[in-house]
Design brief:
By secondary structure, the protein is mostly beta strands. It has one helix at about 1-20, and strands at about 30-40, 45, 50-55, 65-70, 75-85, 90-95, 105-110, 120, 130-135, 145. It has a single domain, classed as Immunoglobulin-like. The protein starts with a helix and ends with a strand.
Length: about 150
């Protein structure tokens, strides 16, 4: 009898430990929300193009979840949803000319966003606040983009 109980306890512990290390998987309609504030030096960065996308691989094009511009105080809030068979890969793209000189096109920053803010369904249940960023910084993987 003790063997049966002990076996059940071990099986339960294995299941619990595996569920703690395997990230939650999402399928179907998934949503995301992100907000923040952008500066160029000491001035709020107004009119900056921001996009929330599901970064897809291969021949599947990225899904635009939402896009907009920062307001006169540099604030933005994006929120959107898409249908995917696997967990979405949310990214924030920021296009700007801060500290860019005469370089053609705009600087593009691209951030991978944490998955634990993904919500199943069309309405995000939580929002990621990225805080305040100064666009004068130079990101290691930034690029220039003329078409966005």
């Amino acid at each position: 009898m003790y063997r049966g109980v002990l076996g059940a306890i071990i099986a339960l512990l294995v299941c619990v430990s595996h569920s703690a290390i395997i990230p939650q998987q999402h399928t179907g309609i998934q949503s995301y929300s992100v907000s923040g504030r952008l500066f160029c030096g000491t001035q709020p960065a107004s009119g900056i193009r921001v996009k929330l996308v599901d970064d897809d691989f291969g021949s599947d094009p990225d899904d635009d979840l939402d896009a907009g511009y920062t307001d006169q105080n540099g604030y933005f809030k994006l929120s959107g949803d898409t249908y995917e068979m696997t967990t979405i890969d949310p990214h924030l793209k920021i296009y700007h000319d801060c500290n860019d000189g005469f370089t053609p096109c705009q600087r593009r920053w691209k951030f991978e966003l944490p998955n634990h803010y993904i919500t199943n369904g069309k309405v995000p249940q939580k929002a990621l606040d990225i805080g305040t960023w100064n666009l004068e910084a130079i990101m290691p993987d930034e690029s220039h983009d003329c078409i966005h």
